[in-house]
Amino acid sequence: MTYRLIRRAVLGLGLAAALSAFTSFSPFALLAHARSTSTFDEVSETIANSISETFNEAVANHFPSRTGKPAQPAQPPDAKPLPSKPFADGSGYTLCFVPDGASCQALLINAIRSTRQRLLIQAYSFTSAPIAEAVAQAHRRGVDVRVILDKSQQSERYTSATFLKHAGVPVVIDNKPAIAHNKVMVFDDQAVFTGSFNFTKSAQERNAENGMLIRGDAAVVKAYTDNWHKRYRQSRAY
């Protein structure tokens, strides 16, 4: 059984049937499928990520299927407003580690809510309803928001891509690389968030992840912004 069939088992047959299907597939069959390609490492990573994210999100039923509406409230309990100009008060950085430290989701939502002019986003997997709603709210208050996503989000049932597009946010697909694995947000050309943290419920609640919000370092912000624009120019509209 290939990873695509596994996805169908989870998303199409329902959780009970999916669990039954998972007990019958052989991981060696998946690896044999990957070895038949010329990019074993890339396919293996894609399979693992696809199975993990799809199964976790299906269990949580966190995002409805392409309805254009998030299933969860926009603000998690640990999100607190930042000052009106959080990125203008000197340089520094804020770290987050889940599950052992500060919430990466709250750090991101606080930064998004405080953005006033421009928000640039790169994501491999983006299924978090609270983060997606915060991004949509930023767009509604006049922030120039643009999003680059990995091509896997074109078929991911729980992706926020459709929700953001329906909200009027420009979304493009970085489809040239095997995997567009960046997890980056640039806030008002003054701060950058990056790390291992995918913008998903699983990353916040199930995984061990890290992230860093870097403020006031012009060279770092410029490097990430320049790379964002390079990837944007090579992407296509969702």
UniProtKB/TrEMBL annotation:
EC number in record: 3.1.4.4
Keywords, comma-separated and alphabetical: Hydrolase, Lipid degradation, Lipid metabolism, Signal
Catalysed reactions listed for this entry: a 1,2-diacyl-sn-glycero-3-phosphocholine + H2O = a 1,2-diacyl-sn-glycero-3-phosphate + choline + H(+)
Region span, Disordered: 63-84
Region forming the signal peptide: 1-29
Domain named PLD phosphodiesterase: residues: 176-203
Cited Gene3D superfamilies: Endonuclease Chain A
SUPFAM superfamilies from the UniProt entry: Phospholipase D/nuclease
Family listed: Belongs to the phospholipase D family.
Protein's name in the database: phospholipase D
